[in-house]
Amino acid sequence: MHIIFAILWFIALLGVIIGVNYPEKVLWGSKTKTEGKVLKTYGMALIIFFLLFGISLEYLEGINEQGDYVLQGNLHNKEDSEIGEDYRDYEEVKDKKISEVKEPEQVKHHDDELNLSNEVLKIHFIDVGQGDATLIMTPAGKTILVDAGDRNQGETVVSYIKAQGIETIDLLIASHPHADHIGGMASVVQVFEIGEVYMPEVTANTKTFETLLLAIKEKNLKIKKAKAGVEFNIDSSIRALLIAPHSEHYSSLNDYSAVLRVDHGENSFLITGDVEAQSENEMLKSKYPLQVDVLRVSHHGSNSSTIPAFLEAVAPTYGVISVGAENRYGHPHKELMERLGAFGMTVYRTDEAGTIVATSDGREISFDTVPSIQGAGRQRNSELGGNIDIKEWLLDGILNKIFD
Ligand SMILES: [Zn+2]
């Protein structure tokens, strides 16, 4: 409706402009064809249609506010139209707004297209006792699984993933062929639809490894080589990249670990398998950025991993340690915990908290549980005007007191 008033207003404007010079051309029915008569007639029309145009716009705005579906771009377009430009664009946006009000189903769709999605990235550090299993659920609903715990944890991992409503693992990564990482993976391969499988190029002469290879073979899946530089095009709203291993041969099987970096908006995560000093030193020398917000602390908190230089480069705000209670390795090692604590990190442990879920909206990261160590926050963050959330930090402190 407003566009009709806009056209009438424009006609009235033309009437004034033409009429001032040639009154007889615009005042057909009138006896007195003077400039004054022109201004009176078309001037009045000009004002009336201007007001009607404004009212009809406000009416539309009202519909929008009720529907609460105002998109950021509209404000900009509205300004354009108010200064009399680009009516067509404005019309298109307005039409979209109306259709959105009528069809809420489509709103989400538009939001997706405009990247205003409310979808989040969730990383589940599944409690598998002494071992690792990290489930990543992307904003677009894709699934990545890095490791699946020991053999006796296969059912735990399978039922946890099923409980998330997942039927397909789009990307399965076996960080390295140690039983506490791949033991439960054969069950996962048997139960779920599997997209791609990545493993570092190293074998282990164990029954566990053989069982996994057989399960993969039975599903006619191909194993692709996990190495630094492999990037996964799994979901355009995240970046998933392997930043290790770099070498073909290592003295420790742990150093073959595939290290996955995931970036989601301003947030970043590093899933490190069981890497030790040798691979960490290689990553330090590599071209790949190491700084992240959340570090899945390597090798269950072993002191031989997360060397000081690596920790300094990664400079995480949060650490997650996947470790079994009273394990025979003494993980996490006391020295390592002190190192993380001295670094000001907030540290979560699966042996204390059970499964830990980190949620990223692209700007902030939240955890569903209380930490073992509440970090004071890194100076780095304030220096960079960065992302430590003081409110969250204070709240965590209060929660700690309540739960103590
Ligand atoms: Zn391990």
From TrEMBL:
Sequence ranges assigned to domain Metallo-beta-lactamase in this UniProt record: 130-325
Alphabetical UniProt keywords: Membrane, Transmembrane, Transmembrane helix
Signal peptide: none
Chain segments annotated as transmembrane: 43-60
Gene3D superfamilies according to UniProt: Ribonuclease Z/Hydroxyacylglutathione hydrolase-like
InterPro entries xref list: ComA-like_MBL, Competence_DNA_uptake, Metallo-B-lactamas, RibonucZ/Hydroxyglut_hydro
Pfam families: Lactamase_B
Full protein name: Beta-lactamase domain protein
Top-level taxonomy: Bacteria, Bacillati, Bacillota, Clostridia, Peptostreptococcales
